[in-house]
Amino acid sequence: GIVAFLGFSLFHKYSDSTKQDLKALMCEADIIAPRDTKSIEILRDIFSEKKFSEILKRILFEGTDLAFWAKWKKKVSSNSNILGISVRKPEYATSEMLEKYVNYLRGVIQEYLEKNAEGKVRLFSLSEGVKADHRVSKKIIEGLPSATREKIEHVIYDGNTADIKQALRQCNLVICTRLHAMISCIAMQIPFVPIIYEVKMDHILDEVGYTSKKFSFNNLTGLKEHLDKLLKAVELGSMQGKNVILWDMAKLQNY
Question: Which phi-psi region, left, alpha or beta, contains residue 127 (left: φ > 0; alpha: ψ -120 to 50)?
Answer without folding.
Answer: beta
